[in-house]
Amino acid sequence: MHPQAEDRPRPQSLSDLFISFTLLALQGFGGVLAIVQHELVEKKRWMTREEFVEEWAVAQIMPGPNVVNLALMIGGRYFGLPGAMTALAGMLTVPLVIVLLLTFLYAQYADHAQLAGALRGMGAVAAGLITAAGLKLLSTLKTNPLGLPVCIGFTSASFAAIALLRWPLAYVLPVLGVFACILTYRKLKP
Amino acid sequence: MQWGDWLQLFIQYLSLSLLSIGGAITTAPEMHRYLVDEHHWLTDPQFNASIAIAQAAPGPNILFVALMGWHVGLNTGSVAMGLFGVLVTMFGIMLPSTTLTYLAAQWGHRNRSLRAVRAFKQGMAPIVIALLIATGWVLTSAHNNPAKDWRLWLLTAIAALVIWRTRLHLLWMLGAGALLGWFGLV
Q1: Quick one: which of A98, A133, B9, B102 has the fewest CB in 10 Å?
Q2: For chain A, how many structural domains are there in total?
Q3: ipTM of predicted assembly, 2 dp
Q4: What's the rounded Cα separation, in Å, for the pair B126 and A17?
């Protein structure tokens, strides 16, 4: 923790942590990251923007859902392992109940042509949203140490292997990943 | 499904957890290959509904994994198995990644300027991005009847373009998709 941490707002207890992350998750339709940043940095002031960016970088590096990783790390900072588990539970428990209820309702009305149509339409949009997230991130490759042409080569090869050839991720990711990381390591200055 | 199948499913999700760099959604094509194509534990509509409902509902999108487990269990015949499926897939997908993240968080924080840490993060970037785009592709190509599905493909392409190029809130696009589908226009 930073030395000035005592002067700053922080979660008061495990239940404060649980409720905070539950409310945060319930506001996150589609883009949870924007909500997390707004709530924890601007409103609650548990962390500065700089700290947020640092934590987010680590949450992204690690496997697993980024926002859930971030919750885990913040909870862990304040209350150790119990805090990490509490933040995680807050993020997942109530939203899980909600999606199960929605799915249950959907199953009751699955034969309802209009509802099935609505979900079909939302599914098509959801596919577009995920694609858009990838397209948005393409611009970050401009500053990648590998250089844009090499990056596009890796992106195209990964896309072809997974989307067109339907090869298992367990082979594609390690092979291309190790190759890309070694190339990047050589490009970076020691 | 036998208990051995459930164990296999659990192990599959444990390994997917470690591969889910950039978010669990990047492993969705692999889940599709495993659950729908290889084992037929899940139908294509159920697979797509799992992702669509989790995206439309509040909360982290990782819950699509819980819904896949729910459907796999439900297909074996009971609500109780559905809940069991939720536990199997969610513990599978969460356990390795959260353990690793918890242990690595402090180390990563202290060593964030280390060359190897930066090489890993930046080297994975082009691949992680490709996985996101591939996920959209796999979801769309599940509808493979051009005469009937071209409007759906068009909607996906428009949604991707609008969200990519504008600041429009995702909810508006999801709402528009729901309306178009409700009135049978896609």
Answers
A1: A98
A2: 2
A3: 0.73
A4: 35
